[in-house]
Amino acid sequence: MKGRKNIVLLFLGVFIGMTAMLVLSANFSGLVGEVAANRNPVALGANAPIPEELEGLQNLSKAFVQVAQIANPAVVTINSTQTVKQPSHPFLNDPFFRQFFDIPEGSQERVMRGLGSGVIVNPDGYILTNNHVISDADEITVTIDRKEYEAKVVGKDPGSDVAVIKIDKSGLPTVNLGDSDKLQVGEWVMAIGNPFSDELQNTVTAGIVSAKGRSLSGLGSGTRLTYQDFIQTDAAINPGNSGGALVNLRGELVGINTAIVGQANVGIGFAIPINLAKNIMEQLISKGKVTRGWLGVYVQSLDEDMAKAMGLSRVTGALVQKVVEDGPAEKAGLEKDDIILKINNTEIAGSEQLTNFVAGMAPGASIDMVVWRNQKEKKLSVKLGERPSEGETEAAVTGEDHAQQLGITVQELTDQLAERLGAQNVSGVVVSRVAPNSPADRKGIERGDIITSVNNKPVKSVRDYNTAVKGLKEDDVVLLRIFRDDNSYLRALRVPKKK
C-alpha cells in the first residue's frame, strides 16, 4: 500500500513539473517576441531626426554641392604637346658608329606632353588659363564632356602667367566673375581642376583663403613672374590644376589656380586674383596683347635696418635702385636711392605693390608721387610711358632677328642682383634664361651669368646689349665675355641657319 502511494506521488510530481515548464516556455516565447517587436522601430540605418547642432553643417555641405554643380561645367581639361629635338651623342656623328648601331642621322625628336586646366569665360569658346600651361606648345586640345576640340592661342602674358585660348564651339557653359578685392582671409573657397591625370577631370577640393597679396619669390616654386599678387589657399592644388577655377561659396570665379610649393599639395597653393586676370584677359581678347603703364625704375622693398638707415620711422615704400635712361621717372626728376612712399595718395608698402599699381594704369596717365629723399618728403608728378613687352625689357632681341636664335634672355644688373651674384664691381647684363638646346645652352652659358662684353665691346645695360647684337646674320659668330664665380670666360656662339 505504501509502495502504491509513492508511485502516485511520483507521477503527480512529474505532471506538475512538466506543466510548470510549459507555462515558463510560453511566457519566455512571448517575452522574446515582445523584445523583438520593440527593437524593430530603432533598427540600424533608420533615418533619425538631425540634431539642431548639425543643421548648420548640413546647410554648408549643401552649399558646397550647389557651387560644384554651378562651376564644374565651365572647367575644362587642356592637353598640350611640344616636339623637342634632342642632339645625338658626338660619337654617333661618326658614319661608322651610325651604321654599326643602325642609328639614323641627325638629332632625335621627343614629344613632351603637358596637362592643365582652363575656365570657360565666354559661351563662344574663350577659355582663361595660365600661360605656362600652353606656352611653347605645338598643339593644344581642350576636353569637354570627354570630347576633344583643337584650340588656338588668342593671346598670352608671361609677366602675369595669364593666357586666353579659343575653341570653335558656341553655347558653352560659363561661370560668373567675382570681385577678388572683396575676398577675405578665412573665407571658404573651392578649387576645381584636373590634377595629375585626364582621368581625374573636374576634381573639387575645398579650403579657405589663407592670405592675400602673396609673392612666390624665394619660395623655390620655380615661378618667375613680373606681377605677383597671389591669393594663398589651403584647398588642395596639384600638378594639372594650373589654370583651373578658384570659386567662392556664391559660385563666382575669384581666382585662377597657378602654383604650389613643392611637387604636390602641402596645403599651400596660389591663385591669380580674378580682378588682375580679367583686365589682362580683356586686353588679350580685344588687342592680342597687354599694354601697361611704365615708370622706368628698378626697385626693391626695404627691411627694418634699411628703413632705419634711410631715416624712416617705419618699414614702408619702394627703394629706387636704378632709373632707366630717358624713361618717365628720369624725366620727372626721380633719382637713385629715392624711396617711393605714395602714388596718388595710395601708400606703397613695397616693390611688388608699386609694380602692380603702375602696371594697372594706362600709358600716358599722370600720377602724383611722394618720395623720401635726404630725410624728407618730396613731391613729383610723372607721366607714365608704355611698358615695353617682356621681350623688349628682358630679351636681347625680339621678332625675327637672328640674334634671338642664340637662346639668351638678359635683364639689367641691379645692385641687389650684383650683391647676390658676388659681382658688386662688375658691369654688364644678367642672363635670366637660356633656351634648351640653343647655341648658348650648348656652349655652357647658364642663368645668372653676367655678360660684360659682346665682340669685345663693353655692355653696361640691356640697351647696350641689344645694340651690340642687332643686325646679326645667319652663320655669324658672336664673342661673349662671361663673368661667373669671380672668373671671366670667353664663349663664341654661332647664329644657326634657318632650317
Give a description of the structure.
- The chain has twelve helices and 26 strands.
- The protein is of the alpha+beta class.
- It has three domains: 58-290, Thrombin, subunit H, CATH 2.40.10.120; 293-386, Pdz3 Domain, CATH 2.30.42.10; 391-494, Roll (Pdz3 Domain).
- A six-stranded antiparallel barrel has the order 1-2-3-6-5-4. Strands 7-8-9-12-11-10 form a six-stranded antiparallel barrel.
- It is globular, with a radius of gyration of 35 Å.
- The N and C termini lie far apart (135 Å).
- Mean pLDDT is 81; it is low at 391-401.
List keywords for this structure.
Thrombin, subunit H; six-stranded antiparallel beta barrel; single chain; 499 residues; Pdz3 Domain
As a percent range, the share of strand residues is 25-35%
Oligomer: single chain
Question: How many domains, as an integer?
Answer: 3
Can you list the strand order of the major beta sheet?
1-2-3-6-5-4
Total strand segments: 26
**Helix share of residues?**
25-40%
Shape: globular
- What structural class is derived from the secondary structure elements? alpha+beta
CATH class of the largest domain: Mainly Beta
CATH topology of the largest domain: Thrombin, subunit H
Mean pLDDT: 81
Number of helices: 12
Any guess at the CATH architecture of the largest domain?
Beta Barrel
Question: What is the CA-CA span between the terminal residues?
Answer: 135 Å
User: How large is the radius of gyration?
Assistant: 35 Å
Identify low-pLDDT runs: 391-401
Q: Biggest sheet: strands, sense, closure?
A: 6 strands, antiparallel, barrel
